[in-house]
Design brief:
A two-stranded parallel ribbon has the order 1-2. The chain is mainly alpha-helical. Helix 1 packs parallel to helix 4. It has four helices and two strands. The structure holds S-adenosylmethionine (SAM). The site of S-adenosylmethionine has 17 residues, from helix 1 and helix 3.
């Protein structure tokens, strides 16, 4: 029998390979901020349950390690407020999710002139 950790990985592997819009309990509307364009694919891969991004956490310009980057939407939002070179680093235990977020960041880079990967 698979452990719950392996089952979790499988769930997110599948969600990385094919966006699953209704997978998680997202409750917040997409952020509308000046100069921030969140690619459609990132919105479709929003697997959070409310936002973990709080600009007030960025006082004193910390570098951010984002664990469980998913499709990358919240990393992009942190980067929007941070604006530091290598200021936000995303990790994930699911390789397919890392591949998907890397592709999504390329799209985000094209749509946001302030964002660079
Ligand atoms: C609920 S999603 C959140 C994704 C993203 N932060 C968001 O808000 O859309 C959880 C993320 O953690 C990763 N993950 C899966 N199993 C994990 C584990 N056991 N420990 C840490 N992260 C895990 C998944 O691949 C997925 O990207």
């Amino acid at each position: 029998m698979k452990s719950y950790l392996e089952t979790t990985k499988d769930v997110y592997k599948n969600a990385a390979l094919k966006p699953d819009v209704g997978l998680c309990c997202t409750t917040t509307p997409v952020w509308q901020l000046p100069g921030l364009k969140i690619p459609k694919i990132m919105q479709e891969m929003n697997y959070g349950c409310g936002s973990t991004v709080h600009p007030r956490d960025l006082v004193n310009s910390p570098r951010i390690l984002y664990v469980g980057v998913g499709g990358g939407m919240e990393l992009l939002q942190f980067a929007y407020f941070s604006r530091l070179k290598s200021g936000v680093i995303g990790v994930d235990v699911v390789d397919e999710m890392l591949d998907a977020s890397a592709a999504n960041f390329k799209i985000a880079e094209k749509e946001n002139d302030w964002f660079s990967i």
